[in-house]
């Protein structure tokens, strides 16, 4: 293996942990500051422990041992075997997929690169189109939360008619009934404040006709200011903006969820693309195997009058039909994998209901890649959407705990208000002018409201619930971090194993092809070959060659998928495919 030391320091590796701490810092009040510091310290320590365990991990290039079988072959022999077997040997073979559901034998086919497939899926995939709406929905919810502090314009108009009988007076026993008409209107603005209180400014006017007072009618005008401010429960910007912060976090989580869906989609498209590639080549291999078996069967038929018994003919026929069954299955797999890819890319020009085949144009990579466990773990800790979402879950739990802590306080609200009053007998304009005259008539009031449940069990229980929920969120983050590390390590092992399997399956294919070459050379040399030899050796060797070819192709596709999954495990698959996140 080629190994080069990695140049890293623990300080750089803690960058992801520090970013997590920044997410959790948020708006911290003195009531829960100690808990926040302890939580951030716990996350930093956990990251530090993970990084220290891989700090010495070097940069490694995947490698494999050379097969001792192929090592004994000359370069000329290897080139000959690769020309007659393997991927390149089928470059000019036609892909015969049989009739489609419309009965057409050679229906339309579309060749597509991997990048084209991924880009089409990002543009058109139905599931992703739904996911793209998530951030927009969260954005509207955040606006709704912020709108709580919008000023409210209010107005009301009412008319009141009173008719009250008066008590009997002394002496003559005559009472005085009271009749009155009051028309009142009010308009004003009310605005919630970040401090948790509300402020209201209003102006009102009324016209009164009263048979009881000495003045039969008059106009009244008032301008009022009222303030309500919590002093304990519900006090402060941290409490009043909690729902806004939760909505903002939800918006960020929606963006990370979209990123997560994009990564999953890109990975699924790449896997589906290489499945199509494997299915195509498997069909080519099965087609050639059937043709070879039919040719050998026909040779036996020509010798039927000489030295071939009916038993051997029927045995050869069974080989032919088995090969034909494998071919039928291979054709179906081609159409199924094509439809699976079409569903993911959802190209409007390639409707899923249509029978057009989507086929591959690329060959899976087989060049060795370099990797570092240290790099991969550090990058995954910074980029995996699941970890970012888990951090926001912790922050949400902290915000809810902060709110629950405030709800334990007594209700103590301060109310204050003042109003300027004006009155006139004749018209409203004069009453308004009287409001601002030099002789101010001012009403004012100050009050306080206190309330506290005896025992306060509900609030205390809610606080304990929020504290436990926060612990659950922190533990969930730790579990998610472990899952990410497992994903990274498994992805790396898959890359290593797939690369080694390419070598072993290629060696097996070359050895089997060399075996078949030797048998065919014996035939050409005129060596006496019995029907038993043809059935038990040549046909079996042809089948083994087809199987090893399929295994090699599958190994190469698995290597490509393993590389994709490695990028997926580190959260960098979008960067690899140059995919930018766009919401609707």
From TrEMBL:
Top-rank lineage group of the source organism: Bacteria
Signal peptide: 1-20
Annotated Pfam families: OEP
Listed GO MF terms: efflux transmembrane transporter activity; porin activity
Cellular component aspect of the GO annotation: cell outer membrane; efflux pump complex
Keywords: Cell outer membrane, Membrane, Signal, Transmembrane, Transmembrane beta strand, Transport
Subcellular location: Cell outer membrane
Stated family: Belongs to the outer membrane factor (OMF) (TC 1.B.17) family.
Protein name: Outer membrane efflux protein
Species, as recorded: Mucisphaera calidilacus
């Amino acid at each position: 293996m080629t190994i080069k030391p990695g140049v890293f320091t623990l300080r750089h590796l803690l960058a992801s942990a520090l970013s997590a701490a920044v997410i959790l810092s948020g708006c911290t009040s003195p009531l829960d500051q100690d808990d926040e510091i302890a939580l951030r310290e716990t996350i930093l320590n956990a990251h530090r422990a993970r990084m220290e365990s891989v700090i010495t991990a070097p940069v490694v290039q995947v490698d494999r041992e050379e097969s001792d079988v192929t090592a004994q072959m000359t370069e000329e022999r290897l080139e000959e075997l690769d020309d007659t077997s393997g991927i390149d040997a089928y470059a000019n073979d036609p892909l015969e997929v049989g009739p489609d559901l419309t009965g057409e034998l050679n229906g339309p086919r579309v060749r597509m690169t991997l990048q084209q497939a991924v880009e089409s899926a990002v543009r058109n995939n139905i599931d992703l189109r739904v996911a793209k709406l998530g951030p927009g929905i969260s954005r509207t919810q955040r606006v709704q939360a912020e709108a709580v502090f919008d000023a409210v314009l209010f107005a009301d108009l009412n008319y009141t008619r009173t008719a009250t009988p008066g008590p009997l007076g002394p002496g003559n026993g005559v009472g005085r009934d009271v009749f009155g008409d009051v028309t009142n209107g009010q308009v004003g603005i009310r605005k919630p404040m970040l401090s948790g209180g509300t402020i209201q400014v209003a102006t009102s006017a009324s016209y009164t006709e009263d048979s009881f007072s000495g003045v039969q009618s008059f106009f009244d005008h008032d301008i009022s200011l009222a303030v309500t401010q919590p002093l304990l429960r519900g006090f402060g910007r941290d409490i009043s903006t909690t729902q806004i912060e939760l909505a903002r976090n939800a918006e960020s989580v929606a963006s990370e969820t979209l990123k997560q869906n994009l990564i999953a989609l890109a990975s699924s498209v790449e896997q589906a693309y290489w499945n199509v590639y494997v299915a195509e080549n498997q069909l080519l291999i099965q087609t050639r195997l059937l043709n070879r078996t039919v040719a050998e069967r026909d040779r036996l038929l020509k010798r039927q009058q000489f030295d071939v018994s009916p038993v051997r003919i029927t045995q050869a026929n069974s080989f032919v039909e088995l090969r034909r069954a494998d071919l039928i299955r291979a054709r179906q797999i081609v159409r199924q994998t094509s439809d699976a890819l079409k569903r993911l890319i959802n190209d409007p020009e390639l409707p899923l209901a249509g029978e057009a085949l989507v086929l591959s144009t690329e060959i899976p990579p087989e060049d060795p890649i370099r990797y570092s466990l240290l790099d991969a773990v550090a990058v995954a800790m910074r980029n995996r959407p699941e970890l970012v979402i888990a951090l926001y879950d912790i922050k949400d739990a902290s915000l809810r705990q902060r709110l629950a802590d405030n709800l334990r306080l007594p209700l103590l609200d301060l109310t204050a208000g003042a109003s300027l009053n004006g009155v006139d007998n004749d018209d409203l304009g004069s009453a308004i002018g009287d409001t601002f005259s030099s002789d101010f008539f001012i009403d004012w009031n100050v009050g306080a409201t206190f309330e506290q449940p005896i025992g306060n069990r509900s609030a205390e229980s809610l606080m304990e619930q929020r504290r436990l929920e926060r612990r659950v969120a922190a533990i969930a983050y730790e579990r998610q971090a472990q899952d990410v590390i497992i994903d990274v390590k498994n992805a790396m092992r898959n890359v290593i194993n797939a690369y080694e399997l390419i070598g072993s399956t290629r060696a097996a294919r070359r050895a089997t092809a060399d075996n078949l070459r030797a048998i065919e050379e014996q035939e050409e040399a005129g060596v006496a070959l019995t029907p038993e030899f043809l059935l038990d050796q040549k046909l079996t060797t042809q089948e083994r060659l087809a199987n090893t070819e399929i295994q090699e192709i599958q190994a190469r596709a698995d290597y490509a998928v393993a590389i994709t999954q490695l990028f997926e495990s580190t959260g960098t698959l979008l960067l690899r495919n140059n995919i930018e996140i766009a919401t609707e």
